[in-house]
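Here comes just one.
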Amino acid sequence: MNKNRKIAIAAVACIVLLVAVLGAAYLGGLMEPPELGESNGDSQIYPGYPRTITDSGGRNVTIYKPVERIITLSTDGAEGVRTLGAVDNIVGVTDMINKDGKEYFPELADKPSVGTWNEFDYERIVDIAVNNTTGTVPGVLVISYVSKVSEVEEKLSSFEHIAVVGLDLYKEETFDAEIVKLGYLLEREDEAQDFIDWRHEKIDIVKSAVDGLERPKVYIEKGSSTGTGELGTYGEGSAFDRLCEIAGGENVATHMDATYPKVDWEWVMEQNPDIIIKEEPRTFLEVTGKAEEMRVEVLNRPGAENMSAIKNDRVYILNRKMDYGLENVVGLTYWAKIFHPDTSLDPEAVYREYLEEYQGLEYHEDKMVVYPDEI
């Protein structure tokens, strides 16, 4: 075989190998790999890149190099990144994390703010995205709620090195897929699968514990509701309706037409629930002093003394954050224990495990996430 032929065969072999690597980097075969040589302006080819996913907004998102810098425009995004062990890569956050979440996100409290939860400073995002200490352009990922991702993408579209992904990370129906996609983009696939396995293990434990038990009637009220007039609750298709069902309860509003119906106190009294659950909004690690005030307001409503939940002292104020997103298995276990106190479920142990194993936070015995805490 002559020398030129050997060189040609070697070149073909290299191309075949490169195509295989690029093709393997695409999550679940969702997209075809780009043409060879397409690297978004990067001269260097990174092993295992580019990587492409379809986000929860239906957008195809491609990254061409390892993500070194993350800017999260949501608390759920920050929590998701930390769950996967990549919190040190976060360089920008919203002011809710800076201010309200200082205790829950201590490692992010001093990170630069890029705006509020719904209004972002795009010049600031671009400014902190570039690594000026090395003079290189790092791989940058901006995480947005799906409702805002189109706006974010439009504002940042001229900066090719910044990838924008729409992931909610709080909706049960999309959660598993989203954490897998985030893990893939951050090269944290094993961490993502480990967390999913942990969540499903806890869900199965609850299902097993409440299986066959009589279901108490539960009225779930929005935390902002007061008085006897227009009260917000949760119907079929809502996250709380599903949570109630898995926890072994019967949501009294599950058969209403709307997902988030409005009712009055007279209707609630007619349902005569065995348990009342009310959420305290805007909390992170624990319920605040407002929990007692909220509970007393419910207890003092006209005719409340004739209701089963009031007679048996089964009105509870819960930390709203536990019931959504990454830690909703914690909320699920608390709900199941409230509904069925005789089970061996240990929600405190689940919460401790979540905080210590997946968030790197200390569990404080003195913090109350359900009021009253005798369940």
About this structure: The longest helix spans residues 3-24.
